[in-house]
Amino acid sequence: MKFLKKIFPYIFLIISTFLLTYTFYKSEIYWDGTKSQYYLKYYFFSLTLVLFSIINFFLKDNIREYLVIIFSSIIVTLYTFEMYLTFNNEIKKSYLYKQKTGKKFDKRTKLQIYDDLKKKNDKIKLTVYPSSYLNLNSLFPFSGVSNSKTIYCNENGFYSIYKSDRYGFNNPDDEWSNEKIEYLLVGDSYTHGACVNRPDDIASVLRLLSKKSVLNLGYGDTGPLIHYAILREYLKKNVKKILWIYYEGNDLQNLKKELKNNVLSKYYENENFSQNLKKKQNEIDKVANDMISQSLNIDKSQNSKFLNLLKLYKIRTSIFNENKKSIPPKSEFKKIISSVKKLSKENNSKLFFIYLPDYYRYTKNFDNSNYKLVRDIIKDLDIEFIDIHQEIFDKEQNPKQLFPFEQFGHYNKAGYKKIAEKLFQITKD
Description:
Elements: H1 2-30, H2 40-56, H3 61-101, H4 110-118, E1 125-126, E2 149-151, E3 161-163, E4 181-186, H5 189-192, H6 202-210, E5 214-216, H7 224-234, E6 239-247, H8 251-258, H9 262-269, H10 281-295, H11 300-310, H12 313-319, H13 330-346, E7 350-356, H14 369-380, E8 384-387, H15 388-391, H16 413-427
Parallel strand pairs: 1-2, 4-5, 4-6, 6-7, 7-8
Antiparallel strand pairs: 2-3
Helix pairs in contact: 1-2, 1-3, 6-16, 7-9, 7-13
């Protein structure tokens, strides 16, 4: 205890200084100042700790001894609770999945399943997110490797795997050969078909219901500017209906980052700009394969789990809504949607704006401040606005049951199905 009393002020100072430095890095470098308001509470907390750690050097030994005991107890309690929240969820998921399917929950990381499947199929690929290219100013792909079995994600007990089409999107390739397209979907991971297999994604269910051609141009970890750019690059003639699928959880945040990329900003500034991506698929495949090779050097799944534990992620997200506090790019968003409407009109396509709810809407900590902003912009532009919360989730006795094991994530099979059925009902002729 004597030794602890001596080194305690130094340990405290190191930890508090690190927290302050990390807060600055996340706020001003990683998020480039766009979420500084959100990080104010962390600045206040870490600065308080720094001040308190300095005061510690001048305290009497007996007071310092009490502080060591209190501080240690708090740390142990917090991390014990964090471990409970983390591993209790995993145990619960495994139990429920076993009970429902009779199968074991696949606990392998992406790297592990990739290595396992690579032994059977050396052409297996990982999903490559367009956000990986945000720091590049050369070719900017909007999809993954073409004509390849692609590992996506696991939230429902199994890894979703799909065969990509000629342009790296999640479609049966022959959809591109159809002269008439009933539905063209564009959006992020929810549109992409995150963590479910065909035919359980939105596009596949629409394909089944309509018995017509459906083209899915959704891709994970993308925002409105990339969605607009995808339309510019891949929109076919004779598309009857365009479903612009917006996710309230992070689409506006993604837009802020996308506007800062030199390539993407050209789509925003010049409606005639194009990378001619349809003619560059070989180059896209090479860039995507290089990105996969880089990502294989780190097991991001395991690393993320450890870091989340270290950062008390579960506790923080139960107290704060972590992803809703930045100032939205209102004018930029309106300009993009206005351009989308113009593009749709020129193509003689009917445009629908689909608003998807976030899991945290059904918790106590949801910040709904951007909903009215987005809805008003869409209605001001005279675009049909379909609110999936009002149409589906709000009518459910327990809306969380449409998420994997009622926990945070993308929608489960039932959630995607209900959305597709409702979209078909509203948009059919």
